[in-house]
Design brief:
- With 259 residues, the chain is mostly helical.
- Among the domains are: 37-112; 142-210, no CATH class.
- The chain contains ten helices and four strands, in the order ααααββαααααββα.
- A hairpin with a 6-residue loop joins strand 3 and strand 4.
- Helix 2 packs across helix 4 and helix 5 crosses helix 7 (162-177).
């Protein structure tokens, strides 16, 4: 039986390491990111944190790096990614702070450093909170305010704030001044509601404007021209005639009685 021959691996080129990693480097000209060895070989950071830092440093300015987005991009869980982000913050490679935008929204701003910071910069001062709103003055239209306040009993979707009621009361007062009964106003506001009312105050304001009835006429109504009702003097039957007398049947029967 033939003895199998063992083929020895080829001898390594002179001057190359005999064990461990061997690099074959090609110079990048486009699409590359420079990562410092202080990060790639960091002694305290986990491999997840090092890889996450390299990924974040490769992103363009303005890219979103929220925990949920990163967890959807990579196989690591949200908890593991959150822990890696905290590692990078502690090591000075990352800083996150909350910023209030001009439209009032508060967002998270992430700053990535390709050199570790000895101390993360202090977050910018928060914008002062708006002054608390002053409670509205006593309502000049109490009946209108009461009607608006009670809308939520008939339609919970139309729950209004005190400020909304103060602003909408004059429009309801206009309806009431035009001799519209409060129940009619309430029905106009609460009937045929959509499944979802996102802005109750705007919805009520729109209906008060679009459905406003015209004022009643100021000229007196013309006198009625209807013929009045009379009681027959003979049979007490009710009939229409300008003057009291006999009904038609009794008048027709008079010649027969005379005969």
């Amino acid at each position: 039986m033939a003895t199998p021959q063992v083929i020895a691996p080829s001898r390594a080129p002179s001057g190359s390491p005999t064990a461990g990693v061997h690099h074959i480097n090609v110079r990048h000209t486009t699409g590359f990111t420079v990562i410092g060895n202080h990060l790639a070989q960091h002694a305290q950071l986990s491999l997840t944190a090092i890889g996450l830092a390299a990924h974040i440093q490769s992103l363009p300015t303005g890219a979103r790096v929220g925990i949920k987005l990163l967890a959807a991009r990579f196989p690591e869980s949200e908890a593991r990614i959150a822990a890696a982000l905290r590692e990078l913050e502690a090591a000075g490679y990352l800083h996150r702070d909350r910023v209030r935008l001009a439209d009032g929204r508060v967002v998270t701003r992430t700053t990535s450093y390709n050199q570790p910071q000895a101390k993360a910069p202090a977050p910018p001062p928060e914008q002062p909170e708006p002054a608390p709103s002053v409670p509205p003055e006593p309502q000049p239209h109490p009946e209108a305010a009461t009607l608006l306040t009670g809308l939520r009993r008939h339609a919970p979707q139309l729950t209004l704030s005190a400020r909304d009621i103060s602003e909408l009361a004059p429009a309801v007062a206009t309806w009431l001044a035009r001799d519209v009964h409060p129940a009619t106003v309430r029905h106009a506001l609460t009937s045929d509601l959509p499944p979802l009312v996102r802005h109750p105050a705007g919805f009520v304001r729109n209906r008060l404007t679009a459905l406003l009835p015209p004022p009643l006429p100021t000229t007196p109504e013309p006198p009625s021209t209807a013929i009045p009702l009379q009681d027959c003097d003979r049979c007490d039957r009710v009939f229409r005639a300008p003057e009291p007398g006999h009904c038609r049947d009794c008048r027709e029967a008079e010649p027969h009685r005379a005969a």
